[in-house]
Specification:
CATH topology: TIM Barrel
Low-confidence stretches: 317-324
CATH superfamily: Aldolase class I
CATH class: Alpha Beta
Strand order of the largest sheet: 2-3-4-5-6-7
Radius of gyration: 19 Å
Number of domains: 1
Helix content: 40-55%
Strand content: 5-15%
Number of strands: 8
Distance between the termini: 17 Å
Length: 324
């Protein structure tokens, strides 16, 4: 299929379900289940997976098994496995677990930054410079999140000029990519156009990624706008898992299935098998104990039931049925 005019031919999806998707789940998910979840996502063709977060289990209990999970996943050549780290101690844990990529996270809102990591923006940049320097010296790549780029649950609107300036500063720390994040799902396509328009004056579009939530149902519309501006890297979470414990009211992340389905329809290559992601989501849905929000996932499930599939449907159509 030929890509739609003015859209890139290829897109890289960064799967954040095992970390951002699970971190706010109230039902404990075992390390065995997390490892299997990551392995299934790898098998689905995802080539960048955020596995866990090396944070205090007192603040994020779901990530208490980070060291075990990171050590036990099956690693495949060509797949990037990363973890979120808040400080040098987290970096050392990531290094000991054999990860070669980390993510640091700052916010464009002073209040959110303090609520999230108990530091002001400037203080967090001082700490992250130490983390980035140590990571790069150890041969570990650094990805940088910038939260609340489109709005803050505590402060409201965030100045576009601040988002652009902080994005440039994160890149200057040595990050290979800055992730412009819609933490609470307030962004609409017009905001995406304006924010990314400002950001690309400070950060090359090739080093810019987008992380959106789907709180108001605008996630895919925001991706389409970003695609038209040249962004080719997007975060997504299998099944639409996720939220933020420090962002009241935030709905799940943009679902990987919804994103893959839409990009497949546009002829944009992702290298990700939709049926494989559905299978991974079905597996983790049983472990978190509630239905997942992905529209494409639910449609695939309903289609399976209509075809007479049993409860153990693995997301792969039979040869007789053809593609789902």
């Amino acid at each position: 299929m030929t890509p739609a005019p003015a859209l890139p031919g290829d897109v890289r999806i960064v799967e954040v379900g095992p970390r951002d998707g699970l971190q706010n789940e109230s039902v404990p998910v075992t390390a065995d289940a997390k490892v299997e979840f990551v392995n299934r996502l790898t098998a689905a063709g995802l080539r960048a997976i955020e596995v866990t977060a090396f944070v205090s289990p007192r603040w994020v209990p779901q990530m208490a098994d980070a060291d075990e999970v990171a050590r036990r996943i099956e690693r495949r050549a060509g797949v990037r496995y990363s973890a979120l780290v808040p400080n040098l101690a987290g970096l050392e844990r990531a290094r000991a677990a054999g990860l070669d990529e980390i993510a640091i996270f700052a916010a464009a809102s002073e209040t959110f930054n303090r609520r999230n990591i108990n530091q002001g923006i400037e203080e967090s940049f001082t700490g992250y410079r130490l983390v980035a320097d140590a990571a790069l010296a150890a041969g570990i790549r650094v990805r940088a999140y910038l939260s609340t780029c489109f709005g803050c649950p505590y402060e409201g609107a965030v100045p576009v000029s601040r988002v652009a300036a902080l994005s440039g500063r994160l890149l200057a720390l040595g990050a290979f990519e800055v992730v412009i994040s819609d933490t609470i799902g307030v962004a609409h396509p017009g905001q995406v156009r304006d924010v990314l328009g400002a950001v690309r004056a400070a950060v090359p579009i090739s080093q810019t990624a987008l992380h959106v939530h789907d709180t108001r149902g605008t996630g895919l519309a925001n991706v389409l706008m970003a695609l038209s501006l040249g962004v080719t890297t997007f975060d997504a979470s299998a099944g639409g898992l996720g939220g933020c414990p420090y962002a009241p009211g935030a709905a799940g992340n943009l679902a990987t299935e919804d994103l893959v389905y839409a990009l497949d329809g546009l002829g944009v290559r992702t290298g990700v098998d939709l049926a494989g992601v559905v299978a991974a989501s079905r597996f983790i849905e049983e472990r978190v104990g509630h239905p997942l929000g992905s529209r494409a996932y639910q449609a695939e499930r309903r289609a399976a039931v209509a075809r007479g599939a049993n409860r153990q449907y693995d997301g792969r159509p039979s040869e007789k049925e053809g593609p789902a």
